[in-house]
Amino acid sequence: MLGNYLREQRLKAGLSIKDISRGTRIRSEYLKALEEEQYSKIPGEVYIKGYINEYLRVLGINPQKALELYEQDRQLLSPSEPVSTPPKRKFASKYYYLAITLLLVIPAVYLITPDKRELDTTMAENVVSTYEEPVEKE
Length: 138
Fold this sequence. Notes:
single chain; 138 residues; 7 helices; 64% helix
């Protein structure tokens, strides 16, 4: 239902899938999946509805009818073709580990390194204690 509607509107406008893809910046494989009603090839329902809106925005058509057709298609989906969910992002990335490492190392280095002011006064005391006044010759 939705696929036929989208294809008809695109052909009426005289545009190809590539033209729609350029106008929406949506991959042509996803646009083809919409026209073929293969929703499982699209990474989630939010994306499907967004793609429908963008597709029809390029054509200058109100997306309300298309969204209603999608809802009807969704109700008719067989269990073998569920709408896919977007892939979950892995929480632990290399940047996460890098940030944790820096948060632990920087304070540790700060705590381990002696206070520079303390070193300066110790060095000054050593210099003063080893300093011998010159003896004046008569």
